[in-house]
Amino acid sequence: MKRFLLYAALVTGAFVSVFPYLLVVLTAFKTQGQLNSTDPWLPGLPPTLANITRLLGGDFPRYLGNTVLMTAVLTIGQLVFTTFAAYAFARLRFRGRDALFWLYVATMMVPSAVTMIPLFLIMRELDVINTWYGLLAPYILGTPYGIFLMRQFFRALPGGLEEAARIDGAGPMTILVRILLPLCRPALGTLAIITVISSWNSFLWPLIITSGDDTKVMTVALAGLKVGIGVDYNLMMAGGLIALVPMIAIFVFFQRYIVRSVVLTGLK
């Protein structure tokens, strides 16, 4: 009976979690008439690709490309700068290292909405509003979570590897690039997946800092579909489906890295 109740609770939780995504898929393949004549949880027969074709025939592919570019640049920047910062906090010795690290990590307790206005004012003074520089600058140099994740992994590596390398005449950069980084592939993969997901779904900062089509990303474009008189739910759900497919693929193929991030930060 206990096992039965456990699986019943798991199935119920899974259904509640998956049901909104099911509605997105069903609505994306319905016509306007089918949307009004059928229940939301029932498919429209026959299904139609008109919503996706209409969406892809406009400016949406451009916004999708902007999102891909932003995600790629932020991911590369996070991997590079986060690795250097984490290595310094984990392996290099300098005055105030631990205090500086924990002060930086403490910024994770500050909601991102609190820092949006100060960031916007800084970008305005730098005259980078509605530019790629303003869109990428606040997050390309690393995040507290990423640095904490990589630092925990660096600290778990045996110190004897570095000592042997120093005896052979290797410097800090050589030790990092040729010895430690090859051992950090699991953590780097985890950080990359998390950064891709967070960058792909980023909405508030792109909404504030950008206003033109040259820098508009997919999430902002989807939100713009509901302005004006009436809402085309079929078109919005088609855009949501396009945005959802890459994230589902990433989760299916790389879910072990996402789970590993919890293990690395919780147990190390």
TrEMBL record:
User: What is a single cellular component term in the Gene Ontology annotation?
Assistant: plasma membrane
- Per the record, the domain of life is Bacteria
Report the InterPro entries cross-referenced here.
Answer: MetI-like (IPR000515), MetI-like_sf (IPR035906)
Boundaries of every ABC transmembrane type-1 domain copy: 64-254
Q: Which organism is it from?
A: Nonomuraea dietziae
Protein name per UniProt: Multiple sugar transport system permease protein
What are the GO BP annotations of this UniProt entry?
A: transmembrane transport
Q: Which family does it belong to?
A: Belongs to the binding-protein-dependent transport system permease family.
Keywords associated with the record: Cell membrane, Membrane, Sugar transport, Transmembrane, Transmembrane helix, Transport
May I ask which residue range the UniProt record assigns to the signal sequence? none
List where the protein spans the membrane.
7-29, 68-89, 101-123, 135-154, 235-254
A Pfam family hit = BPD_transp_1
Kindly give the SUPFAM superfamilies that the UniProt entry links to this protein: MetI-like
PROSITE patterns, from UniProt? ABC_TM1
Membrane topology for this entry? Answer: Multi-pass membrane protein
The subcellular location is: Cell membrane
